[in-house]
Amino acid sequence: MKLPEGPKASPQWLSHQFKTDPLALMDAMSDRYGDIFTIMAGSTPTVYVSKPQGIKQIFTSAKEITASGKLNEHSALLVGNNGLLMLDGLRHKHRRQLLMPPLHGTRVQEYGQRICQVTDKVMNNLAMPAAGYAGKSFYAYPTMQKITLEVILQALFGLDSGERYEQFRQLLSNFLTFARSRWLKFSLSYPFLRQDLGRWSPWGHWLDLQRQFDKLLYTEIAERRSQADPSRTDVLSELIFARDETGQAITDEDIRDMFPSLLFGGQDASATAITWSLYWIHRLTDVRERLLAELDTLGESPDPMKIVALPYLSAVCNEALRIYPTQVVTFPRLVESPIQVMGYELSPGTVVIGCIYLTHQREDLYPQPKQFQPERFLERQYSPYEFLPFGGGARRCPGEVLALFEMKLVLATILSRYQLALAHQEKIEKPKAIGINYPPASGLKMLMLCRRLSQGESPQLVTSST
User: Fold this and answer.
1) Are strands 351-354 and 44-49 parallel, antiparallel or unpaired?
2) Domains, the chain, ranges and CATH?
3) Which one of 13, 81, 173, 233 is most buried, by most CB atoms within 10 A?
4) How far is CA 99 from CA 233, 258, 265, in A?
C-alpha cells in the first residue's frame, strides 16, 4: 500500500489541534501536502482528499469504498443506536427515503409562511421600543437558533402552538444547549466521567434530559397512533405510519433515534449558515445594497417561492456556505477492497474523508477564496464534487432542501423589514468549533437600528436601554 504523505507528529498533538483549531490544521496540511494527505489514527490510516476528482471517486466507488455506519459509533451516545448515522446498506437507504417527502418538494413549500412569521416574531421582539439609546444590541447566533428551533418544531413534529409545542420547545432548547456544552464534551471524551451521579452531575444531567425527551416523544407517538390524521405532513407523522425495509411497522425506539441528528443539524447548522450570511451582508456594503435592491423588486409580502428563486440571494447563501460549509468534512468512508485513489493504492481498512472546507478554498475553483464574492455563483455552475456544503453521496444531509429554503426566507425577512448593523464593523470574525459547526466565535454582536418600512414611510427608530 502506498499512502499519501502526512504529518509525523504524535497522535496526541494532532488530536489536540483538531479539537482546538481544526480549520487552521487543515489549511496547514493542505499547504504542506497538497490535495491528499494521511493522518494516522492509531494504527488506522485516514486519508483526506480535497481534489474534486478524488471526492467524486470516494462517492461513486460504492463497492470498494462504503459509507460504513460503524465509523460513526462514537456518536451513538448523542444520537442513538438506530439513527441514520449508525445504519448501513438497505436499512440506511430505506430510512433515508422515508425522510425525503416531508423535507423536500411541496411539503417544504408549506413551511414558507411559517418561516417568515417566526422570523418576524423573533426579530420584532428584539425591536420592541424601550427608553434609552437608539441601536439595541443583540447576538445574532443565539437569535438565529431561536428561529431555527421553531422551524424544526413544525417540520419535524408538526407543532407550532399549544401546550405540547411549549413543552417540546423548552425541552429541546435545554437538550441542544447542553449537547454543545464543554461538560458533555468532557464526558464523551473520557469514559470514566460517564457516571450517573444524579441531575447535578454532567452525565447524570444528560441522561435526565434524554429521559425527558423520550417520555415526551413517546407520549406524542402514542397519541398520534391512536388518533390517525392523514393530513399531517411532518416527519414524525410520516414515520409513525411508515413500514421498515421488512414491511413491519417502525418501532417507537427506532423513530426516536431518527430525531437527534435531525435536531442538531436543523438548529445549529442552519443558524450558523444564516449568522455568517448576516455577517458578510452587513460587512460588505455593495453586497447588502445589491441584495436589498433585488428583494425590493418583489414588493410587500412576496410569495415565499418567489423569494427563494431570487438569483443574487441564492448566490449570497451559496457563498456563505462555501466559506464555512455546514459540514467541513464528509462523513468517513471505509475502504473494503483495494482501490487506487489519485495515484495511491489504498488497502482495506483505510478510512477516507473528503475535506469539504479545503475543496471550497481551492484557488483553481474559487479565485481569492478568502474573499466573499457571491458573483462566482452567478458566473459559473459548480459540480457536486466542487461545491458540497451538505456533504455528498449516501451520507448527504437529508435536510439540505429545507435548510436552504429556510436560510433564504429568514435572510429575506430580516433584510426586508429591519435595518441592522454590525456592532463592531472593523472586527474580523473568526469561526469557533461548536460540535461539528463553526459559527462566529463572538456570536456576532449586531445592532437593531430601525424597522425598514416601505418607500415613502419614515423609519421608526428602535431604542433600548442596553
Assistant:
1) parallel
2) 11-158+232-464 (1.10.630.10)
3) 233
4) 11, 9, 14
